[in-house]
Specification:
mainly beta, single chain, 57% strand, Jelly Rolls, 100 residues
Length: 100
């Protein structure tokens, strides 16, 4: 992935991180759970794609920080789609996309 741009995206409903179908390298996920534990599922290739990462929020009503893949991040080769559950308020994702 050449010519990357690092971005932060906040999602309050299920949706794409970056551009649908395009590779995304995720570095950090910050999930905010509600009154109970939340689970955030991240898939490659859209909402019906393959689950590549699940973040389980263990701190209630607080930010849960997940550093994904160390300094190299974690690549979602066909885009990154977040699926919200009823107990997650939102997520913030720090990621890079290839803009070449």
């Amino acid at each position: 992935m050449a010519n990357q741009i690092t971005s932060t995206k906040q999602l309050t409903d299920s949706g794409e991180v970056g551009v649908a179908g395009q590779p995304v390298r995720v570095y950090r996920i910050v999930g905010l759970s509600g009154a109970t534990l939340g689970n955030s599922t991240f898939k490659s290739n859209g909402s019906s794609g393959t689950t590549l990462f699940t973040a389980v929020c263990t701190a209630i009503s607080a930010d849960n920080i997940f550093d994904v893949g160390g300094t190299k991040g974690f690549v979602f080769p066909q885009g990154c789609y977040w699926t919200k559950d009823a107990n997650t308020t939102d997520v913030k994702v720090i990621y890079e996309t290839d803009v070449a």
